[in-house]
Amino acid sequence: MVLMYHCDLQTGYLGLIGGLNVKATTTAVMKAIMVTDLARKFNYCGHRGKHSFAVLQLKEVVCG
User: How far apart are CA 7 and CA 49, in angstroms?
Assistant: First the structure.
């Protein structure tokens, strides 16, 4: 129950981050949750030796 409440707080906070378009908003959210060095190790599908963002539970928070 505490974990669910914490998750709701995080999605609420991320929902306040905005941008001029979807790309700008996504970039702003990703900057809020990951440092650059970590983000460089991921792409959505995990191609070219990177880790997949699509399989992370964090994807559900960012993408819904």
Answer: 30
Which amino acid, one-letter code, is at 27? T
Measured at the CA of 18, the angle between CA 63 and CA 25, to 5 degrees, comes to 50
Q: How far apart are CA 3 and CA 27, in angstroms?
A: 26
Supply the range of the domain harboring residue 39.
2-63
pLDDT tens-digit profile of 5-51?
A: 445 555 567 777 878 888 888 888 888 888 999 999 999 999 999 99
Kindly state the DSSP code that residue 57 receives in the 8-state scheme.
H
Work out the angle at residue 40's Cα, subtended by the Cα atoms of residues 26 and 12, and round it to the nearest 5 degrees: 30
| Closest by Cα among 21, 14, 25 to 60 | 14
Which two tokens mark 47?
């191609």
